[in-house]
Amino acid sequence: MKIEGGATPNALLGLLSLRPMSGYDIRQLIQRSTGHFWNESYGQIYPGLKRLAAAGLIEKKTERNKGKPDRHLYSLTGEGREQLRDWLKLPIAEEVARNELLLKLFFGSHVSPDVNRVHVLASMEFHQRALKVYAATGKQLQRDEADDPQLPYWLMTLSYGRHYSGAVLKWSKETLAELDKIESREKRRK
Q: Domain spans of the chain?
């Protein structure tokens, strides 16, 4: 049975294609992998797993551990793998990114250039840290997952992140220079 509801159910199917996991395991994996470009919260994961199980796309097995809560492991069914393949073949739905930094800069004339500069510098710091994370992740993947057939695809998404953060850093430097010009003009007018 096909399931609708955007990319979340399909993202869950994709993650479960890697190995059987609990909802907690899925969230932890997201934080280490797709979370750089696609994030799902527990509030999306658990209802999504329930819907996928009801649709017959995944199955749940319960592990009973003495003295610990039961652990529910989810795995793909054959129908779930088929759903994932069908979704992967569909054209992507381009989305307009929501970017608070750009929104604030768009209305930036209502505050001093210094306020805008603080926002741009914070963004720069974020992307500088991201580049370090991407570099470390790339090394770790190549070391730990060298034989995994998914590795080239994981490295492609990592490359996108590196290019994106690099572009944001370049744009940030240009924007800081422009803010300096605006500030100079404002000082000359006073």
A: 7-89, 100-189
| CATH class of the region 7-89 | mainly alpha
pLDDT digits (tens, 9 = 90+) for 102-154: 999 999 999 999 999 999 999 999 999 999 999 999 999 999 999 999 999 99
Any idea what the Cα angle at residue 146 is, between residues 149 and 7, rounded to 5°? 45
pTM above 0.85, yes or no: no
> Is there a contact between 138 and 33 (Cβ–Cβ < 8 Å)?
no
What is d(CA 116, CA 145) in angstroms, rounded to the nearest whole number?
A: 42
Question: What number of residues does the chain have?
Answer: 190
Tokens linked to 35: 């979370």
26 neighbors 46 (Cβ within 8 angstroms): no
